[in-house]
Design goal:
Residues 201-365 form the Peptidase M48 domain. This is Peptidase M48 domain-containing protein. The protein is mostly helical. Helices cover 67% and strands 5% of the residues. The chain has helices spanning 3-24, 29-34, 36-45, 52-56, 61-74, 79-95, 98-118, 135-152, 163-184, 235-238, 242-257, 260-281, 287-300, 302-322, 330-340, 347-350, 356-364, 366-392, and strands spanning 119-121, 128-130, 210-214, 221-224, 228-232. Helix 11 packs across helix 14, helix 14 packs parallel to helix 18 (366-392) and helix 15 packs antiparallel against helix 17. It is elongated and about 80 Å long. Bound molecules: zinc ion (ZN). Zinc ion is lined by residues 251, 255, 309, 312.
């Protein structure tokens, strides 16, 4: 099923659910008499074409009674406990206008449907995340970012034949080959084929990886989600060996593997969906209200971005090892980069990236490094075997 059709289906489910529930449970005439006040409140919230009874009756008193009965039966000998518990819950729910209850139910059910629909597992790390964007849209956004970067770096990109371009391209090729090899090996990394929930790798199929060297003194590497990587020549002043440069490139590839860009946009989409729901069902919320909310939300997302950086470090570490580069250089690389950017303890709380020290510490953990070294040793043996085979031929 195409992503668009899936999205339409999910939206229809959410739209229809509220009306289905209200129509099903509106047959109790007692409710109409008992909830006159509630019905009056509903008129202002819902469209006039539907029955008032249906709007209020989905949470019927009959259901409350069944709750009481259930409570008394399960708490035999403790009637006071069961009665007071259910009564207070019923009372609390009655305080919410039925129209609002219906909206909240839609939001809740909608949230669950969308979450299940967008749930994916990340290769290597095995973490679950929710992606609301189709892969086509992610790549389109990636291509737009790429076109923007190409304009920004116009006249600064080194030609393909430049020795720095040749060197960096060769390193990037090693990392991409390691990724392709890893995706075929279901056991590589804790996320692949783990516990029966297979990691999502479809977004990496047919990705057109390319790397560009930008002639500028900044110490920088970045990636577009369509597989285009940029490294600045300033990076080579800090990271001198192939293994160090490979660490930076593998980190960028790690972001694409984990779909961090799509995840970040998806988190913002939740707020946009909520805003549209409020606009449609409660009141017309203006930009003067939403703008500070979006800014505050962006600030709240910072810890998730730092977590994603650490995850790209980890995926990058495994790719580095699988490509035959010594993973033990990676912690030193992040320490070096941290010094360049001027590490401060505040980075761990206020920046988009965690401090270099924290990143180095995470990768130096015995369990993490042992996993990377295991992959590295296997990879080195395979490379040696391949070299021996080539020399014999
Ligand atoms: Zn990063």
């Amino acid at each position: 099923m195409g992503s668009l059709r899936k999205a339409k289906l999910a939206i229809n489910v959410i739209r229809n659910l509220g009306s289905k529930i209200s129509t099903r449970s509106c047959r109790n005439p007692v409710l109409e008499a008992n909830n006159y006040q509630l019905k009056q409140q509903c008129v202002s919230v819902n469209s006039p074409s539907r029955s008032n009874i249906s709007r209020v009756s989905w949470y019927s008193p009959k259901k409350f009674n069944s709750f009481h009965t259930f409570g008394r039966q399960t708490h035999k000998g403790r009637p006071f406990l069961s009665r007071s518990y259910h009564s207070s819950r019923a009372h609390a729910l009655n305080l919410i206008p039925p129209g609002l209850r219906r909206i909240l139910l839609r939001v809740l059910v909608g949230g669950v449907v969308i979450t299940i629909w967008g749930l994916e597992r990340i290769p290597y790390s095995g973490r679950f995340h929710v992606i609301l964007l189709s892969e086509d849209l992610t790549r389109e956004i990636g291509e737009n970012t790429f076109n923007g970067k190409m304009k920004t770096y116009e006249g600064k990109i080194l030609p393909e034949t430049h020795p720095e371009s040749v060197r960096v391209k060769s390193i990037a090729n090693d990392i991409i080959k390691a990724l392709e090899k890893g995706l075929k090996n279901e056991k590589l990394g804790s996320g692949l084929g783990y516990n029966g929930f297979k990691a999502a790798t479809y977004h990496l199929e047919g990705l057109d990886w390319e790397i560009f060297v930008v002639n500028e003194p900044t110490v920088r590497a970045s990636v577009c989600y369509s597989g285009k990587i940029f490294v600045s020549t300033g990076l080579f002043d800090v990271l001198r060996t192939d293994a160090e440069i490979a660490t930076a490139i593998a980190h960028e590839v790690g972001h694409v593997v984990a779909r961090h860009g799509a995840e970040d946009i998806s988190k913002k989409l939740w707020l946009i969906i909520l805003k549209n729901m409020v606009k449609r069902w409660i009141f017309d919320i203006g930009d003067e209200i939403t703008k500070p909310i979006f800014e505050a939300y962006d600030f709240l997302l910072l810890p998730f971005r730092r977590r994603n950086e650490m995850e790209a470090d980890y995926i990058g570490l495994l790719l580095l090892a699988s490509a035959g580069y010594d993973p033990q250089v990676a912690p030193q690389v992040y320490e070096k980069l941290g010094k360049v950017s001027g590490d401060s303890p505040l980075d761990d709380y206020l920046a988009t990236h965690p401090s270099g020290k924290k990143r180095a510490k995470a990768l130096s953990q015995a369990k993490v490094m042992a996993e990377a070294l295991g992959i590295y040793n296997e990879s080195r043996s395979n490379i040696l075997l391949e070299m021996m085979r080539m020399s014999v031929i």
